[in-house]
Specification:
Largest sheet of chain B: 11 strands, mixed
CATH superfamily of chain A: Winged helix-like DNA-binding domain superfamily/Winged helix DNA-binding domain
Strand content of chain B: 15-25%
Distance between the termini of chain A: 19 Å
Number of domains of chain A: 1
Number of helices of chain A: 4
Radius of gyration of chain B: 39 Å
CATH class of chain A: Mainly Alpha
Structural class of chain A: alpha+beta
Number of strands of chain B: 21
CATH topology of chain A: Arc Repressor Mutant, subunit A
Number of helices of chain B: 28
Oligomer: heterodimer
Shape of chain B: elongated
Helix content of chain B: 40-55%
Structural class of chain B: alpha+beta
Shape of chain A: globular
Largest interface: A-B, 24 and 32 residues
Strand order of the largest sheet of chain A: 1-3-2
Order of helices and strands of chain A: HEHHEEH
Strand content of chain A: 5-15%
Number of strands of chain A: 3
Helix content of chain A: 55-70%
Number of domains of chain B: 5
Radius of gyration of chain A: 16 Å
């Protein structure tokens, strides 16, 4: 196994964090989110696209993101998702949790996040 | 490849029904994934298989397939109603729901409307209350103000009348039903403790019947009370009656001390009787008689007979003045001219508000422009929303809604915004109305008549309706022109929309340019008024008001003159050398106090030998006066220790006196010839002109007598103290020292001279601040509008930007594209604004000092202000455009 590979256990918990972090920058649609996760992680994080939309819908049901059809002149209407205020709070708490986790990892196993 | 059908079919194979929104979203993802797979593999078959596998996976998740997205309740347009009124009510309710769902947009629109309507309503209430509201007296429209002038008059005393023409007309009136006269003065009211300074009007008995006012208690004095003897009567104002006597009804017949003299209270006037102004607290009896060789001056009014015009009355007044007794050479002291008298008659309301009328009308026009800017902003936003909602409008049209129905919907939304904004604006106007007394100069006329009443509320309502119509017209026309087929195209792209989108864009750009033009005009006006104000502030008045403390004194009237002079001399000595006091002096009529004594005397020029009747202001000052106030010596010398009671009387004149009467060699000439009692005063020095009232004063001839010589003239009653530090901090010390010296000296007021200066500049400062506020508001509204237009334009041009970027355009090039669009609108607005300004700013000429209406600095200052604001408004949309991902833009 590649020393840089991220285990599936870590991936599952981090998917929501990834999605919320991307939506923090600006509202995006589903395909855009999947593409960016792939591009920005240099291909290291490529969760199954089929699981993207269930996660998006779950986050929407929990009120962390809000989906809206946006119609622009000369374009198809697209469903864009944006981060809500509760979503921002949840993202902040997730980041703190991951920071704490990595600190602990470093203390025990000398693993540092880049 | 129709991925929507593929996804739907896959989902329907596992469930009875599907959510079409989910289907559409996944179908779009499938389409994009297919394009990417095609780009990667170049194999359509393989790409298709990859995506089909994805669709199969989606369909294999039951929770996913059976998901029903929570939808917020769609706002269903109300059905057509047979009753127009019921239909409008339905549309209004629908509009309220739509606006409630868009709180951000609604808040901005309502706030913008509220600012525009609030400012306009506040100015209207001021304009109506001051300029147009009828005076509260019966037959107020027939009451006129009388002015006496003569050709060549110097007009040192403003709008006055003198006793000779008044008496002549009073004896034989045909065009008027009566005359009345009054004079206001500040007197000391004995309160039992520290005397208070109050404003009292000495008025003829004819005043109250002429105005048609009934007293609340007692009976005002009559003509027989005007004769001297007995305890003089006094009429109290309602305010003074409440403050001093608690509104007690047994006040008639009681005694009141004014300036140490007892007066008998004979009447109390009703609440709201404020003549000649709101600060007058009482009225005392005054008589007007003709005395040969003498005259008195006062303000005068008359009651025109029904059907008589002011011009007819003026004709009669002039005729009476010229045929009446001649007061003699004494008129020179008042008018500086002995030409025949001319009486001018002006409606009272017009005369009372003449000073402030031009300013109020100019500012009314300025807030009108602000309202136009605000309305333009909302109209522009509505146009953009109309373009974005054309699909909704098209669906409604396809379902049978007539064009009138669509127009009504557009108007209903604007009506809700307009009326809500109007209510908020009325509240804002009420708040501004409360703040007015602290914002406006104390002498502002009819301030008590300015209020938010039913008429003003009706004005605000009318304005809201008009603004609603104005903001709704363009979107309503847009709604009428919806092309159903194009708007309903499957991919939502507008096919041949007949240019509706382009037309709306052009309209929005035109609105923005118009708004920026208005902002330019208001900015220029503000710049001119501000420059004028600072010019007044820094202008050379001929004296230095910094670190100067003034104290107006009131020694006991029972003291003989010599004793009063001795008390004041002793006070000067005591104060000289006190800690913090650099110089101390006395003066009879200080700058900015509005006091002046005019003298007239025959003057024989030492150079030409000719005798003229000179008119000049006469002042008495102590030795240190000129040095204390920093008044510059031009020629000769100032008063010194050699000028005593026994030495030759001397005077110092100002430059205007020397220029008018003394020629090149002023020093050494005598003002008037020697008399057996005393020698004529000799001119020993010439000082620089002092602008006593306002910096806009034309310097008039003045001469100064020496207090130390004590010959003639008035007793100087104002202390002037040059302080080392902050003069306000030494006020208490000064008061204590005066009390210690002589407790009987009344202290009317102790005020730093800079405070007097600031008070004198309240009006120009107010104009500058008001104009600046309106200009900044207009600029902010226009900049917000520009920001909105460009943001919308960037959204519309996303695909074009994507193509440009794909073809090699850099982010800087894209940003420049957007900036160029914004700056073009700004430049058009600026050019239009400057062109309009050239014509419009002429109306400001009367308010300006030290700057012309074509002041280059002001024009140049407006340019960067407008361009920087436009650049700031363009910055974010330009940045957004530069960061558009070309791939995303091209995929649409």
């Amino acid at each position: 196994m590649s020393p840089h590979a991220v285990t599936s256990e870590l991936k599952r918990g981090s998917t929501e964090l990834l999605i919320l972090a991307l939506l923090e920058e600006r509202p995006r649609h589903g395909y855009d989110i999947a593409r960016l996760i792939d591009e920005r992680s240099d291909g290291e994080i490529t969760f199954h696209v089929a699981s993207l939309y269930p996660i998006l819908y779950r986050l929407e049901d929990r009120g962390f993101i809000e989906g809206r059809w946006v119609e622009r002149a000369g374009q198809r209407r697209r469903r864009y998702y944006r981060l809500t205020a509760p979503g921002r709070k949840f993202l902040a708490s997730q980041r703190t949790a991951w920071d704490t986790f990595f600190l602990a990892l470093n203390r025990v196993a000398r693993v540092r996040p880049v | 490849m129709n991925w929507k059908d593929e996804v739907r079919a896959a989902f329907l194979a596992r469930a009875a029904s599907v959510d079409e929104d989910v289907v559409e979203e996944l179908a779009q993802h499938a389409a994009l994934a297919y394009e990417r797979a095609m780009a990667d593999t170049l194999d359509p078959g393989r790409a298709e298989r990859q995506v089909r596998n994805l669709v199969t996976e989606w369909a294999g998740d039951p929770a996913f397939v059976n998901r029903r997205r929570r939808r917020t309740a769609a706002q269903v347009p109300p059905p057509e109603s047979s009753s127009r009124l019921a239909g409008l009510a339905q549309e209004l309710r629908y509009a309220c729901r739509l606006l409630w769902r868009q709180p951000g947009y609604s808040a901005v629109a309502i706030l913008t409307m509220a600012l525009g309507i609030g400012a306009t309503t506040a100015l209207f209430s001021l304009a109506y209350g001051v300029l147009f509201k009828p005076l509260p007296w019966p037959h107020a429209d027939r009451i006129v103000r009388l002015y006496e002038t003569r050709q060549g008059a110097t007009n040192r005393f403003g709008a006055i009348m003198t006793s000779a023409p008044y008496v002549a007309w009073r004896e034989r009136p045909t065009t008027i039903d009566g005359l009345a006269a009054w004079r206001v003065d500040q007197v000391m009211l004995d309160t039992g403790g520290e005397p208070a300074r109050v404003r009292v009007a000495a008025a003829t008995a004819s005043l109250f019947p002429l105005l048609g006012v009934q007293s609340l208690l007692g009976t005002p004095y009559s003509e027989k009370d005007e004769a001297p003897g007995g305890q003089p009567p006094v009429v109290l104002s309602y305010g003074l009656w409440q403050e001093r006597y608690g509104g007690r009804r047994d006040v008639i017949g009681r005694s009141l001390q004014l300036d140490g003299k007892p007066r008998r209270i004979v009447a109390v006037m009703p609440r709201g009787f404020l003549f000649p102004d709101a600060e007058t607290r009482a009225w005392t009896a005054m008589s007007v008689r003709f005395v040969k060789g003498g005259l008195s001056m006062f303000s005068a009014i008359a009651l025109l007979k029904p059907g008589v015009t002011p011009a007819q009355a003026a004709s009669e007044g002039t005729a009476r003045a010229r045929s009446g007794p001649d007061p003699g050479v004494v008129v020179m002291a008042v008018f500086g001219s002995r030409a025949p008298a001319r009486i001018t008659v002006v409606p009272f309301l017009e005369a009372q508000t003449a000073d402030v009328r031009p300013a109020i009308l100019v500012f009314l026009a300025a807030v009108g422009l602000l309202l136009v800017t605000a309305v333009g902003n909302i109209a522009g936003i509505q146009l953009a929303r109309g373009t974005a909602r054309r699909r909704e409008m098209a669906i409604r049209a396809a379902l049978g809604a007539g064009s009138w129905r669509l127009v009504r919907q557009a108007l209903a939304e604007n009506l809700v915004i307009g009326l809500t904004g109007g209510c908020c604006g009325l509240l804002l106007a009420a708040l501004l109305d409360r703040a007015l007394p602290s914002l406006l100069p104390p002498a502002f006329p009819r301030l008590n008549d300015v209020r938010i009443d039913l008429l003003v509320a009706a004005f605000a309502l009318g304005l809201s309706l008009l603004a609603s119509l104005a903001t709704g017209v363009l979107p309503a026309l847009q709604a009428r022109r919806v092309k159903v087929a194009g708007a309903l195209a499957e991919d939502g792209r507008v096919q041949g929309d007949g240019g509706t989108g382009l037309r709306a864009s052009r309209m929005r750009a035109a609105i923005i340019s118009g708004q920026l033009a208005i902002a330019c005009v208001l900015l220029l006006g503000a710049a001119l008024l501000t420059r004028s104000f600072f010019s007044m502030l820094t202008s050379d008045r001929g004296y230095d008001p910094t670190h100067v403390l003034t104290a107006m004194l009131s020694p006991s009237d029972s003291l003989p003159r010599a004793q009063a002079e001795a008390v004041l001399s002793g006070l000067l000595e005591r104060l000289q050398g006190a800690p913090g006091f650099t110089r101390v002096a006395l003066g009879s009529a200080l700058p900015l106090t509005g006091m002046e004594i005019q003298a007239s005397f025959p003057f024989r020029s030492g150079q030409t030998g000719a005798t003229v009747q000179a008119q000049a202001a006469a002042r008495t000052v102590s030795r240190q006066y000129f040095a204390t106030l920093g008044i510059r010596l031009v020629e000769g010398r100032l008063f010194d220790a050699s000028d005593t009671k026994t030495s030759r009387p001397v005077v110092v004149v100002n430059r205007a006196f020397a220029a008018k009467y003394l020629g090149d060699r002023a020093v050494g000439q005598k003002l008037w010839d020697d008399t057996p009692e005393q020698p004529g005063p000799e001119v020993i020095g010439v000082i620089e002109n002092v602008r006593h009232r306002s910096v806009t004063d034309v310097p008039a001839p003045e001469f100064y007598r020496s207090f130390e010589q004590g010959r003639g003239g008035g007793v100087p009653l104002t202390l002037v103290v040059k302080t080392a530090g902050d003069p306000a901090s030494l006020a208490r010390t000064l008061r204590a020292l005066i009390r210690q010296h002589d407790a009987s000296i009344g202290i009317v007021a102790i005020t730093p001279m800079e405070t007097l200066l600031r008070t004198s500049l309240l009006q120009p400062r107010l104009y500058s601040v008001l104009a600046g506020s309106l200009a900044v508001l207009a600029l902010v509204i226009a900049a917000v509008g520009l920001f909105g237009v460009l943001g919308y334009a960037v959204g519309q041009r996303t695909r074009e930007i994507g193509v440009r970027t794909a073809l090699g355009a850099r982010p800087a090039d894209i940003a420049a594209l957007v900036l160029r669009q914004g700056l073009v609108m700004a430049s058009v607005g600026l050019a239009l604004g400057l062109a309009v300004s050239f014509a419009v700013v002429k109306s400001l000429a009367t308010f300006l000092y030290g700057v012309t209406t074509y002041d280059t600095i002001s024009y140049v200052a407006v340019l960067p202000a407008l361009l920087v604001s436009a650049l700031l408004a363009c910055a974010i949309p330009a940045r957004r455009a530069a960061r558009i991902d070309p791939l995303e833009a091209l995929r649409g």
